[in-house]
Amino acid sequence: NFTEEFLGFEEKYKLFDKEIKGFKYWEFIRMRVYANVWNTVLGLQPVFDKAKKVKKTSLKHINDYIFLKKLKKRDILFSSHPRRMKYGNKYICKSTDCIISLLKDRYSYTIIEEPYYVEIKSATVAHYTPIPYHDIIYTDLIERMYEYKKRFFQLFCSKDYRIIEEELKELLNIINKEFDININFILEKIINNILYIILMEKTYKNILQKISPKMIIMLFYPSIQKLLLIKCAKEICIPVIDVQHGIMTDDDPIFYHFKVKRNYSSIPDYFFAYSKILNSESNYPYVDGIEKHVKYVGNIFLSEQIMKYKKQTSIAEKKYILVIHV
Questions:
Q1: pLDDT tens per residue, range 230-241
Q2: Could you tell me if residue 135 is left (phi over 0), alpha (psi between -120 and 50 degrees) or otherwise beta?
Q3: What is the pLDDT, as a whole number, of residue 134?
Q4: What does the angle CA 203 – CA 119 – CA 173 come to, to the nearest 5 degrees?
Q5: What is the largest CA-CA distance in the chain?
Q6: Cβ(258)–Cβ(284) under 8 Å?
């Protein structure tokens, strides 16, 4: 089992204890390293490997860019996925928008969304619009700010940059030797992840302090923005809830699977899961057990669709064939 082998490797080399100037960095590059080791061992090509020219968000949405939009206190901050689904005449995040529809009349909220191209380099849009809920903050300008900060850091903090670079080169040498591969090509990407945390942590803490939410509800995947959001939220005592969006097994996804249960800086505090049947409880890394942290709520979006079609009495004039690929 490759996942178990990788988890054993993490513990063998005490990767969670590795530091750069007091910053324990492994959690924030772990998924990227794992994915590239896995692909290289199996001889696979990445699914999204080529950047494309990105279509800019329409100027009519410019007021939703952070720094141009006044941040206000809200009860709940939602962190959506920029890969939205066309539903009717709007684009929805089916994991978070259904929760917004249930809570919007009782609680104030805002949504934060990173541009799609940050993680998916082949994306041709920054954000899909129109969307059903308009209290949203787009972080495109934060990404631009980070690029300028990174260049400044490389020019004027070159000694610190070299410390990071040498530490990660040594790490890649250990990985290459352990798995008999060569993934030195990810060096720039994992340096980028660590620099993002170091350079943008203050910015995200300021955002959270201005919004001052009682909780953050997100569709979690290990993008560097979401990892940093969770880190900052934990440090200022804002609970983070992840809404399940896929099946969890004994070894997948890796970002919820650890050899040792401990307090991790990058893992949400609570997990809204489908059901016990559809989840391996061995995944969760919570030190004090899963009972306090995992709530079984089903798949809210699919439940709403079932209720909708149960109420439908008319029969479609056209006949369709549904093909399910397993």
A1: 999 999 999 999
A2: beta
A3: 84
A4: 95
A5: 70
A6: no
Q: Which helix (H) or strand (E) holds 198?
A: helix 187-211
**CA 5/CA 224 separation, integer angstroms:** 25
Q: What angle do CA 231, 254, 95 make, to 5 degrees?
A: 70
Q: pTM for this one?
A: 0.90
Residue labelled with tokens 């439940």: 303
Q: How far apart are CA 142 and CA 66, in angstroms?
A: 7
Q: For residue 186, which of 1, 39, 53 has the smallest C-alpha distance? A: 39
- The alpha carbon of 220 is separated from its chain's Cα centroid by a whole number of angstroms, namely 4
325: exposed, middle or buried (Cβ count in 10 Å: 0-12, 13-18, 19+): exposed
Q: Which residues contact 22 (CB under 8 A, 6 or more apart)?
A: none
Strand locations in 103-149 (E):
109-113, 136-138
